[in-house]
Design goal:
By secondary structure, this protein is mainly beta. It has one domain: Protocatechuate 3,4-Dioxygenase, subunit A (Sandwich), CATH 2.60.130.10. It is built from 3 helices and 9 strands; from the N terminus they run αββββββααβββ. Strand 7 and strand 8 form a beta hairpin. The N and C termini lie far apart (about 40 Å).
Length: about 190
């Protein structure tokens, strides 16, 4: 009989392993800072009490400025020029994240441009999915099938704020007041 305290193994814990195991060099730069239309996408990830989460990781996927879904290789080895549409960034100790990207274009005529987001964090057994919509085209936002399926008072949690410098701010709230709408996809366990 063991009298000492048993220590959990990594298979019995939920991180925080994301912050050092998955980020890679320039993973947060979908577009290089030299790109003439580069924008900063940033925000903070909050828990249900409204406190920043210091060890989350976000992945984003998006179309390019013309609405074309990139098929170029290089997502994990950045060359500084090729837009691959994929990025990964860990939050800092204050729960803040930043990406350098471009404004995505609509993938079809009249569609609302968006950025797909996956969130990994301590305490989450499975990743969470959401979207970031651009705020400018109210007609496209009103006719978007996904937004239309969400109660009107919850839709703003999926729409970024445009900042005076052209950047986008998008905070993610896991629970509580202003909880971000998270999505479920068929065939993906949550």
């Amino acid at each position: 009989m063991t009298t000492g305290r048993l220590v959990p193994t990594p298979g019995q814990t939920i991180g925080p392993f994301y912050g050092y195991a998955l980020p890679y060099e320039r993973g947060d730069q979908l577009a290089g800072p030299h790109h003439p239309r580069a924008v900063r996408l940033h925000g903070t990830v909050y828990d249900g009490a409204g406190d920043p989460i210091p060890d989350a990781l976000l992945e984003i996927w998006q179309a390019d400025e013309d609405g074309t879904v990139p098929r170029a290789p290089g997502s994990l080895r950045r060359d500084g020029w090729t837009f691959t549409g994929f990025g990964r960034a860990a939050v800092d100790n204050a729960g803040d994240y930043t990406f350098t990207t471009v404004n995505p274009g609509p993938t079809e005529e009249g569609a609302a441009p968006f950025i797909a987001v996956t969130l990994f964090a301590r305490g989450l057994l499975n990743r969470l999915f959401t979207r970031i919509y651009l705020p400018e085209n109210s007609v496209a936002l009103e006719s978007d099938p996904l937004l239309a399926s969400i109660p009107a008072d919850r839709r703003p949690t999926l729409i970024a704020e445009r900042e005076p410098d052209g950047g986008l701010r998008f905070d993610i709230r896991l629970q509580g007041d202003g909880e971000t709408v998270f999505l479920a996809f068929p065939g993906i366990d949550r």
